[in-house]
Amino acid sequence: MIVVVNLPQRFQIVNAKSPVGAGILMLPLLIASGLGSGLGGFLASKKNISSPSLLGATVFTTIGTGLLSSLPTSVQIPARQYGYQVICGIGLGASAANLQIITRFAVKEDESATAIGAMTQIRVLGGSIGLAIASLIFNHRATLSLRGILTPAEVSLLLSNPEAIKVYPPSQIKIIRSLYGNAYRDEMRFALYIAVVAVVAAAFTYQRKPPDVNALMGLNKAPDVQHTAPAGRALTEDDPDSRKHEAEVKE
Q1: Which of 50, 111, 124, 204 suits 14 as a labelling partner, its CA being 20 to 30 A distant?
Q2: How confident is the model at residue 30 (pLDDT cuts 50, 70, 90)?
Q3: Whether 85 contacts 24, CB under 8 Å
């Protein structure tokens, strides 16, 4: 969630992009997230490798956020940042998919809906808390860096309306963009620290012998045996085949 909020603001304030342009520049992250989610679900449907997949996804997220935190504060956007977005997006998407799969395998079938719903709510809550802390870090860094250049009210105005930066002289705009870039870098580093914690947490989901996917999904059930009478006659109560079928049903 921090990455999804951080990047568009950075594109608008530091890189001088319009809101629409910032949204377009987010496409590599969003598309890669969808592909990562689909890939994680596909792999888990063939074999229960959700735990290794989750670990790999968190590693991708950590690498991606680490690379995004190294972006320069210049107005020009380096082409490599699109690759950074793809790495991070694959990790985010695959993490979400594998978390749902692990939750599904950890509970009984009649409790899976409740468990998945609870897990989703926890993810949203955790993301909201992380975003709130990251925003505090950003605001503190931006306010300190811009002290003497902008007032706290002007800093808040820029966050709510990045287009307001255009009212300042060009020389001042360059300084503001550079200082905001440093603040966004600190915010992304906080996301990196959270991703490292996620890698450690994902490692604890490892199982030496994970449950079989087919068994968990009820695909290994033996087919029901249907007893039929030989051609030309029907089963009756006195028929030996009928008594044998009733005995099997009772067993």
Answers
A1: 124
A2: very high
A3: no
Q: Could you tell me which of 34, 39, 40, 20 has the C-alpha nearest to residue 162?
A: 20
173 residue type, one letter: I
Q: How many residues in total does the chain contain?
A: 251
Cβ contacts of residue 62 below 8 Å, gap of 6+? 91, 192, 195, 196, 198, 199
Give every CB contact of residue 27 below 8 A, 6+ residues apart in sequence: none
**Residue 224, Cβ density class (10 Å: 0-12 exposed, 13-18 middle, ≥19 buried):** exposed
Q: Which amino acid is at 219?
A: L
Measured between alpha carbons, how far is 50 from 101 in angstroms, rounded to an integer?
A: 7
Tally the C-alpha atoms within 13 A of residue 106's C-alpha that lie toward its C-beta: 15
Alpha helices in the chain (DSSP H): 2-13, 19-25, 27-46, 50-68, 80-106, 112-145, 152-160, 170-203, 213-216, 240-250
* pLDDT at residue 220, as a whole number: 42
Distance CA 114, CA 120 (A): 10
Note the pLDDT of residue 248. 52
3-class DSSP state of 223: coil
Structure tokens at 58: 């968190």
Two structure tokens written together for 16: 């001088």
Alpha-carbon gap, residue 13 to 24, rounded angstroms: 15
Greater confidence, 106 or 214? 106
Structure tokens at 97: 């998919």
Which residue's structure tokens are 């694959």? 90
Percent of the chain with pLDDT over 70: 82
